[in-house]
Design a protein that fits this description.
alpha/beta, 7-stranded mixed beta sheet, 14% strand
């Protein structure tokens, strides 16, 4: 790290697409198995600039069961999010519900690989083809995930990744957009730099969404270790699944056939058979020094600025509403050991056994 910082400061090139930034961009392109990748300041910026580059406007279909950034990015672009319920198995956008909400104003679909679970991409692609819609995937949770050998960054028209410090791969803060159409590259380079052309003229309504050299250096160092991190997390996930297998009412989301997961989250559903509810379980875990989270306890459709939308009505989103009341994410990070997982599961067994 010190050597890298000396290189950066010795060169006196701290931001604006320096050589460290470009090195990380190229390495990530290879690591994610995508033809084109642009680094950005955050996953939210990746959604915003991706939407801008794809020409999204008016109405875009998306899921309510996601981190706020998904729907908020649409709102910041002046786009109305149209919420569709999630499917009950992996809690991703239900493709069977999309066509119910399409109107002449619909321009795209914004699904989310929530918790790293891959959406039903073939069905979503079929809907998009039938109605000439663009598909921008929120892949914030899905760094390095593959489905039947295909990297998720190659799905749809573009995919937005988050490199926030809480992610499996991170640059402290940051993100990236992957895309198949190489003509998007020059557009994104301008959009992330105030819309400026190389000569300084402004032609596009851009923002400041650049990743600086120090963040890129952190990314290069983390990238050297990310495969080891993912392998360790997968072992922890397998341990969790084994220890929770015989426990009624607290079940991890099922594995997806053909999907190589990145171990980014360990979500469980707490249902009536547990003899407790999620709130009581989380309180009990906290009292034992175990930090678990209700993820996502507030749907995007609950936000004050969205809740009056017709698509936000709770009776239109029954699966998402149920998930918001019952899903918890258990501790999962690279510094944990199998003994830590055993302790967490022992505490859960105390309250739900």
């Amino acid at each position: 790290m010190v050597e890298g910082l000396e290189e950066i400061f010795g060169r006196a090139w701290l931001t604006n697409s320096g050589p460290v930034h470009d090195r990380l961009e190229e390495r990530l392109r290879h690591r994610l198995g995508v033809p084109h990748l642009s680094l950005l300041a955050s996953g939210t910026a990746a959604l915003q600039l991706g939407g801008q580059a794809l020409g999204l406007r008016d109405e875009v279909v998306t899921t309510p069961f996601t981190f706020p950034a998904t729907a908020q990015a649409l709102a910041w672009m002046g786009i109305t999010p149209v919420f569709v319920d999630v499917e009950p198995v992996h809690l991703t956008l239900d493709p069977e519900r999309i066509e119910e909400v399409l109107t002449p104003r619909t321009t795209g679909i914004l699904p989310v690989h929530v918790f790293g679970n891959v959406c039903r991409v073939d069905e979503i692609a079929a809907v998009a083809r039938r109605h000439d819609l663009r598909v921008l995937y929120d892949a914030a949770h899905a760094f390095g995930v593959t489905a039947c050998g295909a990297p998720v960054g190659n799905l749809g028209d573009a995919s937005a990744f988050s490199f926030h410090a809480t992610k499996v791969f991170h640059t402290l803060e940051g993100g990236a957009l992957t895309y198949a159409d190489e003509s998007m590259g020059p557009v994104l380079r301008r959009l992330r730099n105030f819309g400026m052309e190389p000569g300084g003229d402004v032609e596009l309504p851009g923002i400041n969404a650049k990743l600086n050299e120090v963040q890129a250096l952190v990314g290069l160092l983390v990238l050297d270790q990310v495969d080891q991190e993912i392998a360790h997390r997968r072992q922890l996930v397998a341990c969790y699944r084994s220890l929770l297998a015989g426990l009624d009412g607290i079940r991890p989301l099922p594995e997806q056939p053909g999907v190589d997961h990145n171990g980014s989250y360990l979500p469980v559903i707490v249902d009536e058979a547990a003899g407790t509810d999620r709130s009581a379980l989380l309180t009990h875990l906290a009292s034992a020094g175990v930090h678990a989270r209700p993820y996502f306890r507030q749907l995007c459709s609950h936000f004050p600025h969205f809740r009056d939308l017709p698509s936000a009505a709770p009776d239109r989103l029954p699966v998402a509403e149920r998930a918001a009341a019952r899903v918890a994410c258990l501790p999962l990070h690279g510094a944990m050991s199998s003994r830590d997982v055993e302790r967490v599961c022992s505490v859960i067994n105390d309250v739900a056994g």
